[in-house]
C-alpha cells in the first residue's frame, strides 16, 4: 500500500473525494454520459430481439419466440458494466525526466492514473493497466474490485521508465488486445515521430474505443528555461546537441506549441480528448479542469 | 596622417582581444539531459547562422569601439588641407562597411538575388569611392609635417613698419601692438626654431642667430619711411623659409591691412604661395576699422631750384580719414643762419623758422583738400621748410611734410652766334629782360660773336649755346669738347649756316655732335613739325601733362642726322620720324643738338625760313622747350633736393664753391661725416623722414641739405577689404587672425594638424550605442518571451472555480 500512499496522498484523495462527492453526475457524465451503453452483454435487462444469423451462439436462440413465429430470433440483453478502462502508461526513459519539478513526467502520469483509477473503481467500473515502451510490457486485466487500485498502483510503482519508446506500435498491440470497446487513457510525452502515433490513435478510435490522450511534458520542456551555451543530451538516443539556449528559446517554444497544436488538431478531428499537461501544473486541478470541461462539452 | 602618441597605436592590438575571446575562450556549455531535443533540431541551422552573424556583428562593433579608443588615445591628426579628405574617406569607408555588412546579412538570410546584387554593387561602389579619395589623399599628404608640436620650425615674422603703424589707438600704437604680438609669437615657437624678423624695409631677409637675437630685433622695430609693399616682403619671407631645412614652415604677418601696403597685383606672391602648399601663413590684423587722422599728402613744389627773387609755389593735399574736423595747416621756412645747425650740450640747435603761411582745412567726413602757398623773397642758399598740420591726431608721422629748395643766383650762359644770326629769341626765352631786372631770372645770358669763341674762357659759364653755327675751327671744336668733358653743358642749334657740311662731319666735330649731318630735309608744305612722342626725358617733362600745339609751328628744313652716334639718344623727332633733338653725354657734360635753328626770323633775307618755331602765332612750346634745354644743360635737372625715404640722396657739388667734406646732421640729431666723390655727395641712410643738413667749411660755412619724406601713401590708413586680401593670398591659403587665440588655433592646426580626437570619441559613442542597442535587441527579447510563456499553459484552460 506504500505505493498507494505515495501516489494518492491524503490531500489528493480529499481533492478527488471532493470531486466525487460534489458531483456524482460528473463521474457519471464522465463515464456514462459519454459512453451511453454501447455494449450489450449477458444481463437480466432485455434489450431486443433480432433474426438469427449464422455464427450466433445457438444457445441464445429464444425458443419461445420460435414457438410463436416459427422463426429463429436471438435474445439481446443490455450489458451490466458501463465501460472498461485501460490506463496505458509510457515507460520510455524520457518519461523519467524532470528538470526542476518535484515529479517526473512518469510520477505525474502515475498520479493522474491513480486518480482516474480511483474514480473508476469507486463506480465499479473495471480498470486495467498496460505499460509499454517499444512494445507492451505489462498488462493488468481490468477489474472493478476495490483491491484493483492497490494492485494497479503497486505495479506502477515498481515500473521504471527505461529505454526507448514506440508509442505507435504499442498502441497497435493494445488495440489488438482489446476485445470490447474500451476507454483507453494514454499517458505519454509523445516524444517520438508523431505521424505513426496519430495513425495508431486514429485506428484505435476507428475501432470504436474511446481515447483520452494525456500529453505530459516536463515544465522545462515547455518553457525552456535554459540560457547560455548548453549541451543537451537525449536520454533515449544519447544524441548530443550544443546550442545557445537563450538564442534558441523562442524557436523552441514555437516548435513545442506547433507540436501540441498538431496533436490537438488531429485529436479533435478523430474525437479524441487531448489533454496537454506539464509537470508544473497541479495534476488534481488539471484533472478537475479537464473533467469539468469534458462535462461542459458533453 | 600622423600621431601625437604614436606608441599608443599599439593599443589597436586590443581590438584583437574580443576576437581572441570569441575564438578561444568560448564558454564551456552546460551538460544537460533533455528529452525534447527534437524540437531544437528543427530550426537549428538557420538559427545558428543568425546567431553567428549576430555574434560577429557585435564582435565587429566591440572591435571598432576598442580601435576607436586606441586611435583616440594615439591622437591622430593630419594637415588641415587634407583633413576634409580624411573625413570624407572615413564617411565613405563607413558606408562601404555598412554596405558590405548588409550584403553579408542578405547572403546569410538568403534574400533575393536582386537585393544581394544591389547591395553588393553598392558595397563595391562605396569601396571604390573610399579608395579614390584615400589614395590621392595619402599621396598628397604632407607626411611628417604635422604631429610633433615641439619640432623646430622655420618661422618668419613679417612686421609692417610703415609710418602709419605709429597710429595710436587706445593708448597703444599699432607698432607697439605688433611688437608685443611678435614677442608672443617668438615665445610660442619651439626650441631650436629658425626665426627671422622682417620689417617693411626692402633689406635682405635672414634668420636670426638665435631666439634672443630675434627678440632683440623685435625690440628694435621702428617705423620706417622706406617701407616697401608688404607683398614684396612676404615674397622675401617665403623664399627665406623655403630655403630652410626645417620641415615645417610658418610665416606670421603683422599688419594693419592698409591698402597702401598691399599691391593689388601680386601674382608672383600668389605663385610662390602656390609652390609652397605646406607653408602656414597667418595674417594678423592689428588695424581698426574706424581710424581718425589728418595728414599731408602729395606735396609738390613748382621748382626745387629757384632764382633769387623767384616765386615758389607749394601745393599739398590735406587728407582726412574719420568723422570730420578742422585743422590749421602751417608752412614754416627756416631763416638763414650760417652758424647752425650745431650740437650744443648734446642737443642739435636748428636755425629759427618763420611761419610763412597758414590755412584752415575743414572736413565734414573722410576726404581731402588742396592747399597752396606762394613764397617769395627766399634768401640765397639751401632753404628748409615744413608744412605741418597743427593739433594732435592718431598718426603724427604724416602731419608734417618737409621740403628743401635751393635759391641760387642766375646761371651764366654763353650764347654764341655768327654774325647775322638772331640771338634775341633764345635769350628772351631763357632769361626775359623783365625777369632779369626783377632778379628772378634763372639764367644770365652773355652773347658773343662766333668769331670770339676762341678767345672766351668757357669755364666761367654754366653752359654754352651755339645758335646756327657756321663751320668751326678744329681748335674750337676741341675747346668745346674739353669744356663738355669737364662737365659743361653745350647746346647746338644747327641751321642754314652749317655749310660746308663736311666741316661738321670731321672727327673733332663729330666728337661733339651726336651724329653725322647727311643732308638737309626740305619741306614746302607745313605738314612737318616737331612731334615728340615720349616724354620720359627731363627735357620734355614739362610737356607731359600739357598738350602743345606743335603742328602750329611748321618746320620747313632741318638737318638729317644719319647715322646717329651710338652714344647719342634721340630725345624728340619730327613728324617724319627724323631726329629733331639728340642728346649726347660727353664726359661729365651734356651736349644737346637740335637739327633746326631757333634763331630764324619770319622772313630771312635771301632765303626761306627754316621754321616758324618762334614766328608762329602761338609759340609758347618753343619757349618752354628752350627753358628746359637751358636748365638741362646747366645740370640743374640733376639737383634733386627732396627724396622719399630709402632713396639715396645725391647732392652735386660745385668744385669752385663747395668743400669735399661735409658734416651731415640727420633729423634725429645724429651727425655723420660725408665725403664727396666725383663732385657729389651720396647719402644712403635716408629712412627717417625729416631734414638732412650738410655743413661744410671752405673759407666760410657752406650749408647744403635735402629733405626726406615718407611716400604719400605711407600715412594712408584706408583699409583693404578682406576680399582683396583673399585675391592676393588666395581665399583659403592663409589664416586671418585678430587675436592670440586664433593664432594659437591656427598654429595648432598647422603643426598638429586637425585632430580626429573628437570624431573618434563620437565614433566610440556611436559604436557602443549600436552595440548596446543590438545586444539588447538580440537578448532581452528572448528573456521577455520566457516570462510571457511561463503562465501560458494553464491559462488556456478555464478556471475550475468558474464552474
Task: Summarize the SSE layout with pairings.
The complex is a heterodimer of chains A (298) and B (803).
Chain A: H1 2-7, H2 10-22, H3 24-33, E1 46-51, H4 63-69, E2 73-77, E3 84-90, H5 105-122, E4 127-132, E5 136-143, H6 147-158, H7 167-177, E6 182-188, H8 194-206, E7 210-217, H9 219-223, E8 229-233, E9 240-244, H10 245-270, E10 273-278, H11 283-297
Parallel strand pairs in A: 3-4, 3-6, 6-7, 7-10
Antiparallel strand pairs in A: 1-2, 4-5, 8-9
Chain B: E1 2-3, H1 16-23, E2 30-33, H2 37-42, H3 44-74, E3 76-78, H4 80-108, H5 113-140, E4 153-159, E5 168-169, E6 172-173, H6 174-188, E7 194-198, H7 211-219, H8 230-243, E8 248-255, H9 267-275, E9 280-285, E10 293-301, E11 305-307, E12 312-321, E13 325-334, E14 342-344, E15 347-349, E16 353-363, E17 367-375, E18 381-389, E19 400-408, E20 411-417, H10 424-430, H11 433-438, E21 443-449, E22 463-467, H12 474-485, E23 489-493, H13 507-510, E24 515-522, E25 557-564, E26 568-573, E27 579-586, E28 589-594, H14 620-633, E29 642-644, E30 649-652, E31 661-665, E32 671-675, E33 680-683, E34 690-697, E35 701-709, H15 722-729, E36 735-737, H16 740-751, E37 754-755, H17 757-790, H18 792-795
Parallel strand pairs in B: 4-7, 4-8, 8-9, 9-36, 11-19, 20-21, 20-22, 22-23, 23-28, 29-35
Antiparallel strand pairs in B: 1-3, 3-37, 5-6, 10-12, 12-17, 13-16, 13-18, 14-15, 18-19, 24-25, 26-27, 27-28, 30-33, 31-32, 31-34, 34-35
Task: Describe the structure in your own words.
The complex is a heterodimer of chains A (298) and B (803). Chain A has 298 residues and is α/β, with parallel strands linked by helices. Chain A is 46% helix and 21% strand. In chain A, the strands form 3 sheets. Chain A has a 6-stranded mixed beta sheet, sandwiched between helices. Chain A has a two-stranded antiparallel sheet with strand order 1-2. Chain B has 18 helices and 37 strands. In chain B, strand 27 and strand 28 (589-594) form a beta hairpin. Chain B folds into 4 domains: 2-28 and 36-146 and 754-783, no CATH class; 153-291 and 717-751, von Willebrand factor, type A domain (Rossmann fold); 293-408 and 640-715, Immunoglobulins (Immunoglobulin-like); 411-638, Class I glutamine amidotransferase (GATase) domain (Rossmann fold, 3-Layer(aba) Sandwich). Helices cover 31% and strands 27% of the residues of chain B. In chain B, the strands form 10 sheets. A 7-stranded mixed beta sheet of chain B has the order 21-20-22-23-28-27-26, sandwiched between helices.
Amino acid at each position: 500500500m506504500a505505493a498507494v500512499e505515495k501516489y494518492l496522498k491524503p490531500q489528493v484523495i480529499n481533492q478527488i473525494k471532493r470531486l466525487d462527492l460534489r458531483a456524482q453526475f460528473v463521474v457519471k457524465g464522465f463515464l456514462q454520459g459519454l459512453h451511453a451503453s454501447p455494449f450489450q452483454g449477458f444481463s437480466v435487462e432485455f434489450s431486443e430481439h433480432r433474426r438469427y444469423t449464422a455464427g450466433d451462439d445457438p444457445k441464445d436462440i429464444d425458443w419461445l419466440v420460435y414457438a410463436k413465429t416459427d422463426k429463429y430470433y436471438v435474445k439481446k440483453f443490455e450489458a451490466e458494466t458501463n465501460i472498461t478502462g485501460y490506463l496505458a502508461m509510457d515507460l520510455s526513459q524520457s518519461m523519467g525526466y524532470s528538470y526542476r519539478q518535484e515529479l517526473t513526467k512518469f510520477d505525474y502520469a502515475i498520479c493522474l492514473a491513480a486518480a482516474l483509477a480511483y474514480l473508476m473503481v469507486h463506480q465499479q467500473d473495471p480498470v486495467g493497466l498496460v505499460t509499454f515502451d517499444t512494445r507492451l510490457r505489462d498488462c493488468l486485466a481490468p477489474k472493478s474490485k476495490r483491491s484493483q487500485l492497490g494492485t494497479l498502483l503497486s505495479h506502477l510503482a515498481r515500473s521504471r521508465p527505461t529505454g526507448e519508446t514506440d508509442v505507435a506500435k504499442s498502441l497497435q498491440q493494445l488495440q489488438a488486445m482489446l476485445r470490447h470497446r474500451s476507454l483507453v487513457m494514454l499517458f505519454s510525452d509523445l516524444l517520438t515521430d508523431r505521424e505513426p502515433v496519430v495513425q495508431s490513435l486514429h485506428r484505435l478510435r476507428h475501432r470504436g474505443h474511446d481515447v483520452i490522450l494525456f500529453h505530459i511534458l516536463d515544465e522545462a520542456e515547455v518553457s525552456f528555461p535554459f540560457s547560455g551555451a548548453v549541451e543537451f543530451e537525449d536520454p533515449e538516443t544519447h544524441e548530443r546537441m550544443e546550442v545557445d539556449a537563450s538564442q534558441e528559446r523562442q524557436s523552441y517554444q514555437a516548435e513545442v506549441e506547433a507540436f501540441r497544436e498538431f496533436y490537438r488538431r488531429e485529436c479533435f478531428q478523430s474525437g479524441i480528448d487531448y489533454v496537454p499537461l506539464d509537470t508544473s501544473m497541479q495534476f488534481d486541478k488539471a484533472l478537475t479542469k479537464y473533467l469539468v470541461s469534458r462535462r461542459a462539452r458533453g | 596622417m600622423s600621431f601625437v602618441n604614436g606608441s599608443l597605436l599599439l593599443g589597436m592590438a586590443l581590438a584583437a582581444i574580443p576576437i581572441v575571446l570569441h575564438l578561444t575562450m568560448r564558454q564551456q556549455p552546460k551538460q544537460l539531459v533533455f528529452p525534447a531535443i527534437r524540437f531544437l533540431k528543427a530550426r537549428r541551422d538557420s538559427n545558428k547562422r543568425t546567431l553567428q552573424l549576430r555574434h560577429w556583428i557585435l564582435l565587429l562593433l566591440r572591435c571598432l569601439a576598442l580601435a576607436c579608443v586606441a586611435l583616440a588615445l594615439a591622437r591622430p591628426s593630419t594637415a588641415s588641407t587634407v583633413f576634409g579628405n580624411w573625413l570624407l574617406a572615413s564617411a565613405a569607408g563607413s558606408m562601404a562597411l555598412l554596405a558590405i555588412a548588409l550584403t553579408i546579412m542578405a547572403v546569410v538570410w538568403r534574400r533575393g538575388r536582386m537585393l544581394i546584387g544591389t547591395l553588393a554593387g553598392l558595397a563595391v561602389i562605396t569601396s571604390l569611392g573610399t579608395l579614390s579619395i584615400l589614395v590621392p589623399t595619402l599621396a598628397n599628404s604632407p607626411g611628417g609635417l604635422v604631429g610633433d608640436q615641439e619640432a623646430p620650425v622655420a618661422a618668419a615674422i613679417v612686421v609692417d613698419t610703415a609710418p602709419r603703424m605709429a597710429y595710436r589707438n587706445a593708448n597703444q600704437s599699432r607698432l607697439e601692438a605688433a611688437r608685443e604680438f611678435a614677442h608672443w609669437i617668438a615665445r610660442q615657437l619651439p626650441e631650436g626654431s629658425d626665426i627671422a624678423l622682417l620689417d617693411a624695409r626692402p633689406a635682405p631677409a635672414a634668420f636670426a642667430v638665435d631666439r634672443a637675437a630675434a627678440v632683440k630685433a623685435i625690440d628694435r622695430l621702428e617705423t620706417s619711411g622706406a617701407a616697401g609693399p608688404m607683398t614684396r616682403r612676404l615674397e622675401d619671407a617665403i623664399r627665406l623659409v623655403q630655403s630652410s631645412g626645417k620641415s615645417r614652415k610658418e610665416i606670421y604677418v603683422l599688419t594693419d591691412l592698409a591698402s597702401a601696403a598691399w599691391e593689388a597685383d601680386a601674382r608672383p606672391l600668389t605663385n610662390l604661395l602656390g609652390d609652397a602648399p605646406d607653408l602656414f601663413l597667418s595674417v594678423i590684423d592689428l588695424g581698426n576699422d574706424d581710424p581718425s587722422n589728418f595728414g599731408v599728402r602729395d606735396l609738390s613744389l613748382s621748382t626745387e631750384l629757384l632764382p633769387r627773387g623767384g616765386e615758389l609755389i607749394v601745393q599739398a593735399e590735406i587728407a582726412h580719414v574719420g568723422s570730420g574736423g578742422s585743422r590749421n595747416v602751417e608752412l614754416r621756412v627756416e631763416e638763414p643762419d650760417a652758424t647752425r645747425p650745431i650740437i650744443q650740450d648734446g642737443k642739435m640747435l636748428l636755425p629759427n623758422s618763420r611761419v610763412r603761411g597758414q590755412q584752415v582745412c575743414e572736413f565734414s567726413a573722410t576726404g581731402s583738400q588742396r592747399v597752396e602757398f606762394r613764397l617769395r623773397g627766399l634768401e640765397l642758399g639751401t632753404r628748409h621748410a615744413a608744412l605741418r598740420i597743427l593739433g594732435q591726431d592718431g598718426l603724427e608721422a604724416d602731419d608734417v611734410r618737409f621740403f628743401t629748395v635751393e635759391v641760387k643766383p642766375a646761371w651764366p650762359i654763353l650764347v654764341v652766334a655768327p654774325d647775322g644770326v638772331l640771338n634775341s629769341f633764345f635769350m628772351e626765352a631763357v632769361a626775359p629782360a623783365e625777369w632779369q631786372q626783377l632778379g628772378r631770372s634763372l639764367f644770365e645770358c652773355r652773347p658773343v660773336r662766333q668769331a670770339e669763341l676762341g678767345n672766351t674762357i668757357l669755364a666761367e659759364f654754366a653752359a654754352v649755346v651755339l645758335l646756327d653755327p657756321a663751320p668751326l675751327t678744329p681748335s674750337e671744336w676741341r675747346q668745346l669738347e674739353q669744356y663738355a668733358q669737364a662737365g659743361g653743358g653745350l647746346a647746338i642749334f644747327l641751321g642754314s649756316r652749317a655749310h660746308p657740311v663736311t666741316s661738321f662731319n670731321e672727327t673733332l666735330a663729330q666728337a661733339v655732335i651726336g651724329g653725322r649731318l647727311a643732308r638737309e630735309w626740305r619741306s614746302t608744305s607745313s605738314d612737318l613739325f616737331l612731334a615728340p612722342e615720349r616724354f620720359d626725358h627731363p627735357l620734355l617733362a614739362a610737356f607731359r601733362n600739357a598738350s602743345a600745339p606743335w603742328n602750329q609751328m611748321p618746320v620747313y628744313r632741318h638737318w638729317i642726322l644719319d647715322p646717329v652716334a651710338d652714344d647719342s639718344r634721340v630725345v624728340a623727332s619730327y613728324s617724319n620720324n627724323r631726329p629733331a633733338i639728340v642728346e649726347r653725354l660727353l664726359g661729365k657734360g651734356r651736349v644737346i643738338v637740335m637739327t633746326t635753328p631757333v634763331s630764324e626770323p619770319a622772313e630771312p633775307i635771301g632765303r626761306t625760313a627754316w621754321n616758324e618755331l618762334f614766328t608762329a602765332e602761338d609759340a609758347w612750346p618753343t619757349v618752354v622747350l628752350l627753358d628746359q634745354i637751358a636748365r638741362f644743360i646747366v645740370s640743374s635737372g640733376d639737383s634733386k633736393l627732396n627724396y622719399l625715404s630709402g632713396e639715396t640722396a645725391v647732392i652735386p657739388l660745385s668744385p669752385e664753391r663747395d668743400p669735399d667734406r661735409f658734416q651731415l646732421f640727420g633729423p634725429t640729431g645724429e651727425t655723420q661725416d660725408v665725403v664727396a666723390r666725383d663732385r657729389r655727395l651720396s647719402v644712403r641712410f635716408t629712412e627717417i623722414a625729416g631734414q638732412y643738413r650738410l655743413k661744410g667749411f671752405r673759407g666760410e660755412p657752406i650749408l647744403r641739405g635735402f629733405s626726406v619724406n615718407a611716400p604719400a601713401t605711407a600715412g594712408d590708413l584706408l583699409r583693404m577689404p578682406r576680399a582683396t586680401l583673399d585675391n592676393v593670398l588666395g581665399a583659403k591659403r592663409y589664416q586671418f587672425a585678430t587675436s592670440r587665440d586664433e593664432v594659437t588655433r591656427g598654429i595648432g592646426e598647422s603643426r598638429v594638424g586637425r585632430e580626429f580626437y573628437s570624431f573618434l570619441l563620437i565614433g566610440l559613442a556611436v559604436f557602443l550605442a549600436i552595440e548596446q542597442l543590438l545586444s539588447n535587441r538580440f537578448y532581452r527579447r528572448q528573456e521577455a518571451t520566457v516570462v510571457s510563456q511561463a503562465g501560458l499553459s494553464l491559462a488556456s484552460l478555464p478556471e475550475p472555480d468558474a464552474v
